[in-house]
Amino acid sequence: MMAEPTSSTALAVTATAGVGIAAMLPWIDANALMGAVLGAALVAYTKKELKPWQRFAALMFSALVGYLMSGEVVAQTPLTESGTGGFLGAIIIVPLALKLMLQVDRLDLNAILAAIKRGTGG
Q: Cross-referenced InterPro entries, in alphabetical order (predicted)?
């Protein structure tokens, strides 16, 4: 199921206007924000099975995570620009966190504790 062209256009206009307004605030890192929004737009664009409001929520969440993670991505990698860090944060952190959540749901803590107990001879 494809999204309606008008809803995709409205989403893009809203995101662009939001970035433009936020970039005027002095405490906002405009490069990180733009990178995060571009990465989040890529994430939202690939979620074709979602309704328009769900895609917008995915865009906002990914953009927020990308913006918040941009500093850490720059600090922990050879990247030097916060825009690239925001982009990578938006497209990598959220899917990675979702996969990690699925693995945690499948985790059998009793089996792990039993294996540790057998390994220590206890």
A: Phage_holin-like
Please return the burial class of 79, using the count of CB atoms within 10 Å of its CB with bins 0-12, 13-18 and 19+: middle
Query: Cα separations (Å) of 36 from 7, 33, 59, 61, 67?
Result: 21, 5, 9, 10, 5
Structure token pair of residue 39: 């990465």
Low-confidence residues in the chain, pLDDT < 70: 1-25, 120-122
How far is the C-alpha of 45 from the C-alpha of 66, rounded, in Å? 16
Domain extent listing, the chain: 5-93
Round to whole Å and give the CA distance between 23 and 69.
17
How many whole angstroms separate alpha carbon 17 and alpha carbon 23? 10
Angle of helix 5-23 relative to helix 30-46, nearest 10 degrees, comes to: 170
Q: Residue for token digits 């001879």?
A: 121
Amino acid at 18: G
Contact 42, 59 (CB under 8 A): no
Q: What are phi and psi of 24, to 5 degrees?
A: -80, -15
